[in-house]
Write a structure and sequence with these properties.
The protein has 330 residues and is mainly α. 71% of the residues lie in helices and 2% in strands.
Length: 330
């Protein structure tokens, strides 16, 4: 895979710290925060800010392992369909009378198996992950439509609603606290463990990583399983928050999740990126979508904005690099 410049490589050695991609994201977050507070008098209300976290936490949970998968030169576009399939399986179990603990286990297991299937097909047959996961995106979503059709599951056991609607303390929801905890776990995993170092090594050069003794395929399968399991976890939160399951649940979320990762400075070509950048990008997208919601901007317009952000973040570094090369030639 051809290497392209990445956002976090735009800095010069002299101004390395000030020109870090994370610093740029912090400045944009501050600007969006100020604009939102000026645009709506309701923005600074603590409960409104708490509500804003519901806009991104479920997607953000998947963005954490997705960042590591993309750093490893792979991608999973079936995450939203995995969520739908896990939600339907939970709904079936709930209708059969199983309790909350069983539903949680089923969702995590379904997500894990979906990720395992993706990983085994990608590494076993050598098919690009974008092709495989586009296929499984249709496969998993199609199964949910076959099972549910136009109907919905709406009966869940007592206590299940806490995952998506409960608060740990004051305005801090269970979802948001869970996201912060997992963000810390994935930060340590990526930046302070051998597993994280192997992820970067594979992303930089998978052939060299293989000859240095790294089990490249096994490493990728584990990452696919992590993405699948976190998709199952996000499915629990979303189903709990909505209180129902429909086959169209979370449809189109893969675009937002990939945008969060790329906006966070993770190179789509692999080998570069940080978990700090992903968390900041998550907060930025949450503020942007919540601010647009306060201004009554339609959902379809938000989708256009998210798509434009994704294209811009991918294309701007490439354009800047070409301009840099032209200057060198002159």
């Amino acid at each position: 895979m051809k290497h392209h410049p990445v956002p976090d490589s735009l800095s010069t050695p002299v101004r390395r710290y000030l020109f870090r991609w994370e610093i740029f994201l912090l400045l944009v977050i501050a600007m969006v925060f100020i604009l939102n507070s000026l645009a709506s008098p309701y923005f600074l209300d603590p409960w409104n800010l708490s509500d804003a976290t519901f806009n991104f936490t479920e997607k953000a949970l998947i963005a954490l392992p997705m960042a590591m998968l993309i750093i490893c030169r792979e991608i999973d576009l079936s995450v939203a369909s995995t969520m739908a399939l896990a939600s339907v399986c939970m709904g079936l179990a709930a209708q059969a009378g199983f309790g909350t603990e069983t539903l949680v286990g089923i969702a995590l297991l379904v997500g894990l198996l979906c990720g395992l299937f993706n990983g085994l097909v990608v590494t076993g047959f050598g098919i690009p992950s974008i092709v495989v996961t586009i296929g499984t995106m249709s496969l998993y979503r199609g199964i949910t439509y076959v099972i549910l059709g136009d109907s919905a599951f709406t009966e869940y056991p007592d206590g299940f609603e806490y995952f998506g609607q409960g608060y740990v303390v004051w305005v801090f929801s269970f979802e948001f606290i869970l996201f912060l905890g997992l963000a810390l776990v994935f930060y340590v995993l990526l930046h302070h463990t051998n597993f994280g170092r192997r992820t970067y090594a594979i992303g930089h050069n998978p052939v060299a990583a293989l000859y240095s003794g790294i089990q490249v395929n096994r490493h990728k399968v584990i990452l696919f399983m992590l993405v699948g399991m976190l998709s199952g976890l996000a499915s629990i939160l979303l189903t709990s928050r909505l209180g129902s399951t429909r086959p169209s649940i979370a449809i189109g979320w893969e675009l937002s999740i990939v945008t969060m990762v790329v906006l966070g400075g993770v190179s789509i070509a692999g080998g570069a990126g940080s978990m700090t950048g992903v968390v900041l990008a998550v907060l930025l997208m949450g503020l942007v979508t919540f601010g647009l919601g306060l201004l009554n901007v339609p959902g379809i317009v938000m989708t256009i904005i998210i798509g434009a952000m994704l294209i811009s973040v991918i294309s701007v570094p490439v354009v800047l690099n070409k301009l840099k090369q032209r200057r060198k030639v002159r």
